[in-house]
Structures are given as C-alpha cells and as structure tokens.
TrEMBL record:
This is PF03932 family protein CutC. Gene3D superfamilies: Copper homeostasis (CutC) domain (3.20.20.380). It is found in: Cytoplasm. The gene is cutC. The keyword Cytoplasm applies. Pfam families: CutC (PF03932). HAMAP family: CutC. Belongs to the CutC family. Its main location: cytoplasm. The keyword Cytoplasm applies. Keywords: Cytoplasm. SUPFAM superfamilies: CutC-like.
Amino acid sequence: MKGILECCVDSVESAIAAKNGGADRLELCQGLVIGGVTPGTALFQEIKNQMDIRIHALMRPRFGDFCYTRHEIDILCEDIRTFRKLGADAAVIGALKPDGTLDVEAMKRMIDAAGDMSITLHRAFDVCRDPFEALETAKELGVNTILTSGQRKSAKEGVEILKQLALKADGKVDIMAGAGIDADAIRYLAPKTGITTFHMSGKMTLDSRMVYRKEGINMGLPSMSEFEIWRTDEKKVEEAREVLDQFTASF
C-alpha cells in the first residue's frame, strides 16, 4: 500500500519542487497566500509541459466565503470545462448555502461540467454546518475525495473528527487530511486516524530579488509584505514522503 501525498502549488517553481520531493499529485491554484483561487490556463499548461504528474485544478472564483451567486457558478462551470479540455485530472470544488449546508444544485452543475474528471470537495467542507451530514451528501453526489482539517485550524487539532470521518467514509470517499501538514503532522495523524492521503503546501518564504524597494506602497493585503515570495520547499516534501512511506509500509 502506498500513501498519497498531494502538494498545493501556485507556481511552476513550486510544482517542480513538489515533484522532486516525491509528491504524487498537485493541487494547482493561484494566490495561495489568500487560500488559493482558480489558476490561469497558461500556468497549468507550463506545468504540464515541464512534468508528468497528476494535476488537480482548484475551482474558486474569488477570496472569501463559498456561498456563490448564479454568475459565479456559471464561471466555475465554464472554468471546469476548460480545464477538463486541457487535461486536468480532477476538479477541486465546493459550494455552500447560506444555512451552512452543501449547495447540492451548484455541486451537481459543477460535477456535470467535470465529466469524467475526479472530484475533490475542498475545505468549504471545513466551514459547513455538519461535517457528517456533508459527508453523506458527498457520497450521494459521487465525490471522490474530501480535503479537510476536521473543521479545525489544523489537521492535528481536528484529529478526532478526522478519525470519525475516515470511519464513516467507509471507503466510499477518500478523506484527505490538510492544514498544517508536514512530516511531524503525518507521523502524529496517520496512526491515530488511519488516513493515508495528505495535502500540504510545504511552503517556505523567500526574500524578493528586488534591490530597490519602494516604501509605503501596498498592492494587496496590508498585513503582507510585497517582498516575500511563497514557494514549496522540496526538503519538506521529501520529509513528509519519507514518513508517509514508513507508515504505509506496515500495511
């Protein structure tokens, strides 16, 4: 048995580092600093040109909640069809109603647009009203994978819910633990939950190559420096891969 290590990336450089570190697949997005939004097609194509690795494309039209307008759902469905044509292996989707339940009709539309692509329900799941109710709905919808921290800030904090989800999934949906995942987190979570699929970014912060730095100008979130670059650390992925392989070798 081999565990699955997915790496969330938003650049070609991070994708290369993830692949070299031993990731089985990528979740591709842009704007990882804000939790990720739908990636550009040129970024997807450049990564496809550079390497042979499964690419799961995140479908998220904007930063913020997962309660989408009709126009946003239309955009999501069109993006899914586009990435299906480009050869993406999976669509990573999620939508909620104002009451905190899964937006089943929106999900059905997106799943229909995905055709034969695999479906991952992203961390909209972690802010839904009832994770176990959402799990059953996901089963009915034919979702393949649920990415979750167990409705906590980190997967380590959500260990008990993750354990229950893995049991209740009953092999019909793959529960993928995410949020704060590194080698130590896998070492802690895998034996306690039985989960063997993990999602990480393995990020490190690089200093900008800019020598001249204009002060007092900010292009986005005021809490973020314009001169910090997030990239996947190949070493962190290697360490996580090693721990996961050690755990699954015992099965």
